[in-house]
Amino acid sequence: MSPQDNIILLSTKIHPSEEELQSLDAQVALVHDWEAVARNLTERGVGPLFYSKLSMLSNRVLIPEVSYERLKQAYYRTLTRGMMLYDVFRRVADAFTLNGIRVVALKGIHLAEWLYQDIALRQFSDIDLLVTKEDGGRCLQILRDMGFVQSGDEILHMIDEKSGLIHYPPMVMNDVSVEIHIDLNRRQNLDIKKIIQCSERLTLNHTRVHVLELYDLLIFLCIHLDKHFRAGKVQFTCFCDIVNLIDIQAGEIDWQKLEIRCMLSRCEEMVYKYIYIAHKYFHARMPDAVAEQYAAYLLVQDEELFLRYLDGFRGTVSGVPNHLNNIARINGFREKLRYFLLVVFPSREFMVRSYSIKNPSLFRLYYLTRHLRALRGLWRMTFRNKNFIESETRTFGTKTDRAKTG
Question: Which is it for strands 207-211 and 176-181: parallel, antiparallel or unpaired?
Fold first, then answer.
């Protein structure tokens, strides 16, 4: 791997060992293009973590001033954004609590303060909160009363209606978005009511809320990462969360208990795969026997894809297959046609917002752009699926050959 790849991997831990810091320092000396490295660290969400370690590296003097300032700005931008989000979070959480609603803080709003212990280290752009399905509508009304406005459009509402609602369209006020979740994933068998009941009390930004219990948290982080991993939109922030949760909570994790929890949710393969990546590439702490057991869940094609992500790969995602599935589930020709027309020819508001059209009256001209993007996405997905099938075939053939010679 390149020095840039190694720097990303070695920067991830909040509390690196002395040996890891020495390895990171050695990689800093091997970089030839700091402009590219600083940009990639920032884009992957690792820039603030790397910047926080510079005072412990002797080779930091080799980093050009311009690149150093870029990393510094990433740290302080994250801090500034985090302070604004936590202020809104406090007011929203207090409002929900006053109305007797049990609210569970998810992802960045939970982890930046509790796990990272420095909100400048963990980038997050919005506030994710989990409530019961029964409380979802009340939460939206409370947010409206506070001045929030629901974003989204008719297409997104129909997609949620046909695919199953995970969270309501974001509620936005002053560039701050709040997502009210009533579920965590469509594909896994997660008991949301039980997860909320088992959530634990925690004080975040001087506000008493609930957070996911340790095993639910680890499972959720892996499931959330898998969604992005498969969609081609991996932010290394997701890996940072898993790596640091395992590394810092190593003494608290009962690996047999985690296995039982995963079996109940039918997500063993998914969770173990990312845990093993965290161990193999980021050196997250876990017993050797556990690491050896989980190694079998990391398939060759998944490992190759991870390394491509590490090197900067971003997949192309097309919503066409999901739209086709939704149309197939809709009853009645008229409703099918309505959905199709909404997707192919969205509203003026949707087009202006999605394509940043400066002259709204010209929004129809951008339909061609939308349709070409859809065709290009399908074309790339076709080749990606073809390569995946070929990879699966090679993997199966290798396993068969090994079995014959074994």
Answer: unpaired
Q: Which residue has the higher pLDDT, 181 or 161?
A: 181
* Cα 286 from chain centroid (whole Å): 23
Phi and psi at 249, nearest 5°, equal: -95, 20
How far is CA 144 from each of CA 90, 93, 138, 178, rounded to the nearest angstrom?
16, 14, 10, 11
CB burial of residue 372 (10 Å; 0-12, 13-18, 19+) = exposed
In the structure encoding, which two tokens stand for residue 45, read together? 């969400």
Instruction: Select 87-212's CATH number: 3.30.930.10, 3.30.2350.10, 3.30.460.40, 3.90.920.20.
Output: 3.30.460.40
Chain region(s) in the chain for CATH 3.30.460.40: 87-212
Mean pLDDT value of segment 38-55: 95
Tens digit of each residue's pLDDT (9 = 90 or more) over 4-29:
999 999 999 999 999 999 999 999 99
CB 340 within 8 A of CB 324: no
Q: Under a CB-based contact definition with an 8 Å cutoff, are residues 39 and 26 in contact?
A: no
| H/E element, 162 | helix 154-163
State the maximum Cα–Cα separation within the chain, in Å, rounded to a whole number: 69
